[in-house]
Amino acid sequence: MLKVAITGPESTGKSTLSEQLASHYNTVWVPEYARSYVGNLEKPYTLQDIEAIAAGQLELEQKLEKEANQVLFADTDMLVLKIWSEHAFGHCPTWIQEKLEQQNYNLCLLMGVDLPWEPDPQREHPHLRTFFYEWYKKELQALGVPFVEVSGQQEERLKQAKNIVDKLLNKNL
C-alpha cells in the first residue's frame, strides 16, 4: 500500500484535497486529529496538548491504514506537529522528531499558499503563510523525503495531485 501525506501551512486546502483524493481513489483518508482535539479545548493549547495531538494523529493513521484501498492519504503528518511546536513553544519534543524521521510516506504533497486565506477559529497566522511554506519546504529537503509542490486553485490542485498519485501507483504496480 502507498501512503501520501498532504502537508503545509494553514488554510492551504489540505483537508479538502485529502478528502477529494480519497474519494477519487475509493479509499480512506486520515483527518487532522488536531481539529477535534483543539476544538474541544476550553483553554489555550499547551506543548502537552501538541504531544497528545501527535499521539492521537499516529493512532488514527494506524487505525485507518487497515481500511485503506491501495493508497492512504494523510491530512497531516509529524512535520506539521514539529513546526507547530517549534513555532509556538521554541522546541519540538524529541519523540515527535523521532517519529517524523521514521515516517514512511511514499510521497508528501506540499500545499502552496496561493489559495485565499479562510478564517477559522483554530487558524492563527494568516500573515505568515509564505514563511511557513518555506519552512516546510526546507524541512522536507533536509529530511530527504520525496515531495511535490502543489499549487493553483482547488480544481488545479486536484488535477495535479491525481496526476502525481497516478504516476506513483503505476510505478508501484
Automatic annotation (TrEMBL):
Domain of life, per lineage: Bacteria
SUPFAM superfamilies, A to Z: P-loop containing nucleoside triphosphate hydrolases
InterPro entries in the record: NAD_biosynth-regulator, NadR/Ttd14_AAA_dom, P-loop_NTPase
Domain NadR/Ttd14 AAA: residue ranges: 3-157
Name under which the protein is recorded: AAA family ATPase
Source organism: Pontibacter locisalis
